[in-house]
Every structure is written in structure tokens, then in C-alpha cells.
Amino acid sequence: MIKTTSEIAVRLIQSVGGDHMVVAAAKVSTSGESALQFSSPESGEENAGLINYLVKMRHGTPFEHSSLTFFVHAPIFVWREWHRHRIGFSYNEESGRYKQLEPLFYLPPSNRPMMKVDGWKPGRPKFELAKEDVWVSLCENLAKSYKLSYEMYEANLALGIDPGLARDCLPVGIYSACWVTCNPRSLMSFLSLRVHDERSQFVSYPLYEIDVAARACESMFQAGWPITHAAFVKNGRVAP
Amino acid sequence: MIKTTSEIAVRLIQSVGGDHMVVAAAKVSTSGESALQFSSPESGEENAGLINYLVKMRHGTPFEHSSLTFFVHAPIFVWREWHRHRIGFSYNEESGRYKQLEPLFYLPPSNRPMMKVDGWKPGRPKFELAKEDVWVSLCENLAKSYKLSYEMYEANLALGIDPGLARDCLPVGIYSACWVTCNPRSLMSFLSLRVHDERSQFVSYPLYEIDVAARACESMFQAGWPITHAAFVKNGRVAP
Amino acid sequence: MIKTTSEIAVRLIQSVGGDHMVVAAAKVSTSGESALQFSSPESGEENAGLINYLVKMRHGTPFEHSSLTFFVHAPIFVWREWHRHRIGFSYNEESGRYKQLEPLFYLPPSNRPMMKVDGWKPGRPKFELAKEDVWVSLCENLAKSYKLSYEMYEANLALGIDPGLARDCLPVGIYSACWVTCNPRSLMSFLSLRVHDERSQFVSYPLYEIDVAARACESMFQAGWPITHAAFVKNGRVAP
Amino acid sequence: MIKTTSEIAVRLIQSVGGDHMVVAAAKVSTSGESALQFSSPESGEENAGLINYLVKMRHGTPFEHSSLTFFVHAPIFVWREWHRHRIGFSYNEESGRYKQLEPLFYLPPSNRPMMKVDGWKPGRPKFELAKEDVWVSLCENLAKSYKLSYEMYEANLALGIDPGLARDCLPVGIYSACWVTCNPRSLMSFLSLRVHDERSQFVSYPLYEIDVAARACESMFQAGWPITHAAFVKNGRVAP
User: Fold this and answer.
1) pLDDT given for residue D124 in this prediction
2) Which residues of A touch C16 (CB under 8 A)?
3) CA–CA gap between residue A109 and residue C186 (Å, rounded)
4) pLDDT greater than 70 at residue C66
5) A3-234: which CATH topology?
6) Fewer CB in 10 Å around end: N or C, chain C?
């Protein structure tokens, strides 16, 4: 019996640092040893000026001394894209070689723009909302395939087959759990590419589902690094 | 109409460097400017001693000044593992968002050890050959699921759905093409983890299919960097 | 007036994570979503077994979800080596372009082995203690040069010269402050190369002064990740 | 007897790839297996459009399948900045631990803007040309200090001191040889930060001497990747 969902879950497991660490790290360059005396979180206005300057002038290293660890539950096709981010990203993912994967699969919500309007042209894909019946047909098609895939997977396991081989029929729409650790700099680079925002200096056209996950990460990032996040947005979402 | 295959194709598209570059780069540390005069490929014995010393003492950087670019055609479940190699690896892969994926799917050859013999215990999985009928059943299960997946994929595309969503039912056993560029150091790190060899100092237990791809890369690496490769093997397949 | 010192200061500014994070990250592979339930720090023995297994089998990624930030005050010749560690290391260093460097310089302590005993042979340099008068001569030579260097630096600044040019006469023995952020995996890689320990599987012969700094980092790492550190030592100080 | 120079030498030791490799790698995403058929170098106009699009949309990975190796002879203060470029850069540098460093030191040419005009304000330092006598004084100061430094270095070596310690008085103005390997993407990132160009979208204010070295690298890059370089310039020198 398979289960389906449209939810892509992101939880913050652990984080350390904050805007004050960005400021303190940046001040090492001009104050040397005394950079040990953290600027207090109170001196907000001065910090905002410095952080905005760092983002604007693309001084990226001060944003590397903090850390965020997310737990993310998402379909494999999201991981396929996410794992391409190599620098400043660490991953530990559920393994189909060592455990039986859960029968949980992705179905798009009806408000996900999904009708292709410009053929196969790469680059700036545009999509419109589907009519109810088209969306229903799509979900039926996916669910039908998901169901048989998982039945065959279980049949293979019942034969005693290597789970790393038995799973070859499982679709990229199946869910997989992964821990993701990054720093504010690598996260901003990820957000600049994986969140669509018309106000970006370099507008990106990511897949809907990774955009959903990225926005969830962004809101947690914003909560912990409000000044840094504001500077990122103000400067056209270009990662420093 | 789907096609199936057991082949995992690896071709060398481009390479540059060789053992002489390893030697010349290493000599920068002791000879400075005159390191520009490459040691000629003829002075093999002396080079072999130096390269063996570099590998043994884990001086890794001289192995980074060469480059290999592979074209690899492999199932998605192989890419899922390969792309986890972040450092010294560059990738460009076929995109399901921008083209219709070909109906080519993986089936294991009958001589692939595939019968689980130690339950779900992680770490050092062991597998035995399958009896003919079990292998046939597995292939039938996979092919049946593959076939329906691709039919549903085509049905989704026919509805005009975003190809990046229509493909969610496609299995990890479908083939995808990718360019992979690395250097001898990053390649040796990959080989140390993705080739099973009982003579390794740290024996690894990779998935059969990525082992096949890794061995193909290794033979091309050996052809171009014979001294480096010999030192890698001699020193227990530990990447410097 | 210049000042000299033999001290290389390392302070832990910030850290997050611990052995329990290593265990929890590793368990994502086999338990998926339930990996959110951290193993409690109490279950020490079981964790020790798992962590030892991860180090031994070189499963490195679970060690990347923690973070340590050090403040280090060390001579430039130490930074010249440290900054060669590229992966999993972040730096913000004092800048001679934007501030006047302090007149603080390194002199070796008398118990630093410093007499060359095997000529210029690279690889496994050996040193013995200096006789008192030789050590004194060395310190006098260094201090004499340090002093003139700083006088000329100040003279250049007094001329109104770009500080980034005025400093060209300053020696690599002058102190510089730097923030260093890394994770347990990248730190273990650093320690395996920059601490001399005869019990290492691959014995390294680092410069004395970076060895001093590395040992200070190691003791702070050991305090926060005692099980991981014990496994690192037990497995011949090979970074997973 | 010391020698001084204003030259910073950059030579291309080895390179592989070219604009055609960028195009072919990019086409993997849309053409899969047939991406093996390289676009011929003749189809220049179409390639220029595609490459410009990749740079503009910040699709960076196709620029990673080529490689350039430079031999660079530069003062240590240049290496101090260069080595901070961690990603996509490989280095092998002359070692003061294993060889006696040559007595070659940097003096600025008279046309190097060097008079500070805005105090210690970081960020956008401005410099004017020096009057002849100021430049002469600066060079005398530097040379005087260089000379004593090297004499003390030789005295230390004559005492039989560890070369890695004896060199602590040597200045950051001494020359050091290094091999540098990078790819077009990492090189463009370097150029965007280390070349001052008013036409840049994010104008950078690098140190004069690393700017000289970077421009030399850029001209060799331009010669081998003319279309890519033109797209980089056209798009405001923002690395994709």
C-alpha cells in the first residue's frame, strides 16, 4: 500500500553563529587580535552597514563561520539537483542499499504551475496552472506507476535480491531523507539559483519542488541571520 | 517500446598531463624556477621512485595538475552515488527538464552477484550469484515496472505537463549521460572507495554497477599515468 | 620597538555538534526520517562502536555536520602552510592592506629541535636541540633583522606609501591573527598531516610551529568530540 | 648579494580544452549521448550565442571541463592572496623547508600607483603615483631591509639551523615559484576579484601586484578561450 504526499519537509536541526559572527569575522582583517571581542548584537545599525557592504563588494568569507544543519524529506528528483551543490555543503542521505525504502511518493499540489507553454526551449521555462481534470490524470498516471514500481520492488526483495539492485525500478518521485549542512555563504549561493524571484539580479528558473525546499531553508536562515538575509535581498540575491 | 541493457559505457573524451607532470609539479618544492624543465618521460626509474614516495607519504597536490574528462552512460542510481564526490569533480548531466529521456533501462547481467546472504547488515554486504530462474524473475519484474513507468511518462508529456514533473515516475534504473572531469588525485580517491579490491589497505564494498564504471575509468587512468597507477596499487590503493 | 614571543595562541571561539551529531547523521542512511531522534549522549558504548566503525571504514561524511571556529595568533610562515588546506576550511585573516601590522615577531623556544642533521634531504627531516649559544645566535640574527624590517616598514608608511606595498619588507616571522572554521572531518585531515605522531599509520613530518598550533586545536577537538577523537587515534590517525 | 626585480612572470605550462568543450559539455543537458559529437570550432556564431547565454544565466559547470596550468614567479605577498582561492585551484610551491631560497626580491616599478590618498579606509583604496624621490626612498628602504634579512638567513643556515626556521626573517617581498592549475570557471572567479576593471558589474580593488599576475593569466585564457572570454567581459566580468 503506497502513500502519496505533496509535502516537502524542512526542519532546522542545529545552527550556530549569526550576524554578530559575520561582523566579528570581517573585523579580523582590520583589527587583528582584538577581533576576539565580538561586536554585541545590540549595535545593529552599524552591523547592518558593514554586512551590506560585505555582500555588495562580494567579500564572502566572513559568511562562512556559521553553520546550519537541515533535515529534509524530499523526493529523489529534488536530491538529484541539490547534491550538485558541492562547495560548503555536506550530506548524509538515506540509503537504498541498507534499508527498505518507505512507500511514500510525491504528487504535485493542484496549484503547482505545470502546463508547458513554450515547448522544450531550455533556460526560462514557463508553466501555467493545469485544469482540474489534467491534474487528476497526471496524479493517476503517477500513482499507477508508483504503485507497480513498489510492488515489483517488494517482489524483488522477497526473492532475496540485493536491495541496491532490487530498487532499480523505484521512481525518482519516491521520498528520501537527508541531512544537509551548509554555511550562510554556501546557502546564499544555493538560494540564488534555487529560488525564483523576479527581483534577483540574475533571475533563476528552478524546478518548483526544489524552490519549495529552498524557500523553507531561506525562512530559517532569515530568522537566524536577519541582517545578512536583508543584505542578500537588497543586493539582488547575489551570493557574496 | 523500451530498451534494456546491462552495459555501462565509459569513454575518455579528453585528457592532459601524465606521470611527467606529477614529477615536474613535485619538483617545484625543491627546485623552484627550474621546475619548468620537465623531467623527460625517459627517466622512468627515478620518476617511479619519486612518485611512489609521494603516494606513500600522502603528498597529494602534485597529482592535481592533470585532467581527465569521461563520457559515461549509466543508470541514475549510479549517478546518485557518483555525484556525492564533490571535490575535484565536475559534472554536466543530461536533464529531464529540458529533453525527453530515452527509454533505455538497466537490467543486471546474470553473473552479477545479487543474492543477499547476510540480511540488512550495513557495511560489508555479501552477495552470491542468483539461480537462473531468480535472475529471470528479477529482470521480468524490473522490465514490467520500467515499461509502465515510461508509458505513464509519455502519457504525462502528452498532457502537456512540465517534463520536470512528468518524469517523476521514471525509475532510477533509467540511463542518463554525463560528462565527468577530474584529476588523478580526485580520481584515486574515487577509485579507493568505488572499486572493491581485497588488496586495498581500506577495503571498500561499493555497489556492483559503480564498481564497473570505476574500473573502466581506472584502466584509462592506468594507460595515461602508468607509474602513478602502479604506485597507487602498490600503496594499498590509498589516495594520496 | 619590536616585541618577540614564542607563543602560538589558539582559542576556541565557537563550536557546535558533538559525537551525538556524528551518530545521528550516520543513522540517516539506515533509518531515514527517524534519524531526527538523536541518540542520547548517554548511550556511549554503542556510539563508540559505530563511530569507530565509521572511521575505520572511512565513511567521512557524518563527521561534517559539526563545526569549530578557532582564533589563532601565529607567524605568517604558519599561515602559509595552514592556508593550503582548502577543503572544509574557512579563513578570515588580518590584512596588511587595511591596518598597520603590530610589531610582534616569532622567536623559537630553546627546546625547539632545530639543528639540521641530514642535510637538505626532503621528506623526513630530523632535528636536534641546539646548544645554548647557537640558539642565542639564531635569536639575535632574527631579532636584528626583524627590527630593521619594522623600522623600514614604518619609514615607508611615514612616506605615505600604500600599506600593501610598504609591508613588503616585513618577514614571515611577524604575527598575524586569523579565524579558522572547520568541521571534524576537515580537522582530522589537517591533524593527520600537521601533527607528528609515531603511532600514525602515515607518519607526517610537519614544521614544528604548525604542529604546536595543530596540537592545541586537537585538544579542543578532543574535549568536544571525545569518542570521535579516540577513534581517530585508535585507527592510526587516518582521517575518514 | 641580493637581486631585485619588478617582474612578475606568468607562463602557460599546459592547457587543454577550449570554447568547443564548453559548448559540448553544455549540450549534454539537452542532447544526452549525442553530446559526444563535439560541435566543430567552425560554427562560431552559434557557439558564441550559447556561451554568452551560459555566462549570463550563470550556468557555470560547462566551464569546468577545461584546464590551465601556469608557472608563476611572484613575491610571497602575492601568494598569500592567491592561495586564498580554494575551489578549483591546485598549487605546488617552492618550499623554504627543503631548499635554500634564492635572493630575489620585489621592488615596485615607478609607475605603480603607491601614494595613499584616503587614509586607512578599507574597501576602495585609491593610490596616486609617487614623486621620483619618494619612490627612490621606498626602494632604498626595502632593499636595505631585504639585504639584511638575507644575510641573517644565510647566517642562520651557516649555524646549521632547520631551513624552515632559519627563514623566519625573510620578507614577504622575496620571490617564490609556484605551479597553479585551474579551470576556466575558477579562473574567471579569480579574475573577477583580482583584476580591477571599471566596467565590471562588481568593481574590485585588488593589490597592484596580483592584478599584474591576473592580467597575464587572463591574456592566456583569452587566447585559448576567445568566445568564453568575450562573454565574460560582455557580462560585466561576473564569473558564471
Assistant:
1) 77
2) 14-16, 67
3) 41
4) yes
5) Gyrase A; domain 2 (3.30.1360)
6) N
